[in-house]
Amino acid sequence: MKNTSWPVFSLLLILIPVIFGGCSGDQISPINRLVGMVNGDPFESLSIQAKVTTESNGELRILINAQDELNEAIFVGIQETEQNILGTHEVILNSGEFLGYREPGSLTTIETQSSFNCSPVLGTIFISEFNQQKKTISGTFEGTVCSFGGVPVIALTQGEFVSVNYQ
User: What is the total count of domains within the chain?
Assistant: First the structure.
C-alpha cells in the first residue's frame, strides 16, 4: 500500500504560514500614523492627533501631534493659504512652519525641543495630500530641533505622516 501522508504533510507545511501569516499582531496600518527617525533611532506613533483651523488672516493652521508608548512625541506645524498647502514648506524663523519634539518619559504635553530654538533653523515639510472631503493629510518632513539655547541638536529625518485624520 502506498503512503500518501507525506505529500499531504508537505502541503500543510507550505500552507500554514500563508493561512496564519495574516494574523500577526505586528502588522500596523499604513494610514493615520507618523514614522521617522530621531537622531537615527526609529520613531513610530502609537497615537496621532491633527487639527486644522482657519486663522483671522484666512490662512490654514495645521498641527500634527504624534506620540509613542513612552510619551515621546513629534510635532509638525504649517500655516499657509489653502491654495498653497500642497508642496514644500521651508521651516524658517518667524514663519508658521515648525517642527517640535518631546523626549521619552517627559511629563509635559508640549514640545521640549523646537526648530525655532536652533541656529540656524533648518527643515522642510512636504504636503503631498490635503483632502478636505475625507479630512486627511499626508506628507514628509525633516529638520533639526533644539532645546532653549540651541543644544542639544536633535535630527528628525525620514519623517512621514500618511492619511492622518484631522478635525
Answer: 1
> In this structure, is residue 2 part of a structural domain?
no
Query: pTM of the full predicted structure?
Result: 0.80
- Record the cell numbers describing residue 52, joined without a space: 486644522
pLDDT average, residue stretch 10-32? 47
> What's the residue count for the chain?
167
Instruction: Give counts: helices (H), strands (E), the chain.
Output: 1, 11
- Of 47, 39, 41, 40, nearest to 73 (Cα)? 47
- 3-state SS, residue 129: strand
Residue 23 within a domain:
no
pLDDT average, residue stretch 81-106: 92
- Segments forming the whole domain that contains residue 81: 28-165
Q: 80: closest CA among 107, 62, 68, 94?
A: 62
Which are the contacts of 6, defined by CB distance < 8 A and separation ≥ 6? Answer: none
What pLDDT shows up at residue 2? Answer: 53
What end-to-end distance do the CA atoms of the chain give, in Å? 70
Note whether residue 4 is domain-resident: no
